[in-house]
Amino acid sequence: MKQKSLQASLLEILLPLALIFGLVLLLSLNVEQTHQTEAAQAPLESWLKLIVGYLAATAEIAAALVIGLAVIRGILLYLLQTFSRSRQHIDSTEVVRLQLGRVLALGLEFTVASDILRTAVAPTRQDILNLGAIVLLRTLLNYFLEREIQQVEQSRSKSYQNPEQPENT
């Protein structure tokens, strides 16, 4: 049992460190950028870049809408619970944080999709490295966000289970 918890805690430390190291490594690579002229591009490629650019912009707009609406909803819920005379105020603010955290994770997925779309058409080596760095950074953020959500949900489920269980003395 102790071996399992030791492995789990070691994994919780090493995984983020590996992601941070990978991010630093990707950002430290300096790749020469080759410039392509517009005349060298095929006409189909320019149309494809235009379409993919619109799709990527749509994904970014979706991310902004999802996150913006969640922030507004979180503020309204927090204000409602602050001004209500509820004794579960601390638990309710935790609910608002969890809901906002879940939506932020979804918004991060939309922004990663946007970055992948932008790099999909005729990427240069530098574009791929930049995408790798962005994806690593967002994965790291998402990892910590999901971990915090899971920890809070586990503590909440334990606190709900404890009053129901009879104490053995």
Automatic annotation (TrEMBL):
<protein>
    <submittedName>
        <fullName>Membrane protein</fullName>
    </submittedName>
</protein>
<dbReference type="InterPro" id="IPR012427">
    <property type="entry name" value="DUF1622"/>
</dbReference>
<keyword id="KW-0812">Transmembrane</keyword>
<feature type="transmembrane region" description="Helical">
    <location>
        <begin position="51"/>
        <end position="80"/>
    </location>
</feature>
<keyword id="KW-1133">Transmembrane helix</keyword>
<feature type="transmembrane region" description="Helical">
    <location>
        <begin position="12"/>
        <end position="31"/>
    </location>
</feature>
<keyword id="KW-0472">Membrane</keyword>
<dbReference type="Pfam" id="PF07784">
    <property type="entry name" value="DUF1622"/>
</dbReference>
